[in-house]
Amino acid sequence: MTSASPSAGAEKARVLIADDHPLFRTAMHNVIDAVYHDAEFIEASDLDEMMSLAAGAEFDLVVLDLNIPGATGFCGLVQLRNEFPNVPVVVVSADEGADVAHDAITYGAVGYIPKSLTMDAMVKALNHVIGGGVYLPPTDAKDGKRKGALSEKDLRFAERVESLSTQQRVVLQMLVEGRPNKQIAYLLDVTESTVKAHVSAILRKLDVQSRTQAVICAGKLSLQAPHHAPPERSVRH
DNA sequence: ATGGCACTCATCTTAAGGAT
DNA sequence: ATCCTTAAGATGAGTGCCAT
Is any atom of strand B within 7 angstroms of residue A165's beta carbon? Predict the structure, then answer.
């Protein structure tokens, strides 16, 4: 599956909606109709169905429920990104935590939309994503206060994290979650050697001596740091 | 065509922990 | 003490993509 250019072309935009709640899928129809006008919808209610529908198909956009049946954590998103790296995936979830939103972007999503968002806000978010941007919901003021300011050292580390490739960021995120190389290899569908190579590159780029050091710094960052978007995309809050 | 970069893989070394 | 297993980390090589 490869992504086609967004609605600008003469052909209908194809949108995959992966959510187990029919009501929410219908709601997303309305939202996406406001964005693409004459889109073709393909629906999936669980992970297996989503992957089989996605195989061999072309989509302009995938709207993925984070808690779709069959997926644990971000594994649905990771699978989708591994199989179809060119398709923009927007994650929707009832979870409004800033950390979850940041993690979704880290795993390769181009946007994170809380289900509590108004229809207008969702339309704006999708328009931003289709325009090539990355969408994150507005940060809660209290949450922002809790996060506090970054030290010089943390900022330098954040800059180094920015230099990591997408795959390296995914590996780093899994290191932070305490996963061993073997499990990371299984989840990403690569060999353990590949994971080791990524870890080595991560350690080199982050200028740390061990994965433990990387995990401590990255963990601290994810609690405190503002989101750092991939360089090629702008971030809208 | 060429060079740079990311990704992948195989192989080797080292260290830690458990079993004998 | 020795051996075995497991995991981490380093290194070199191959492949594919993209910009020049």
Answer: yes
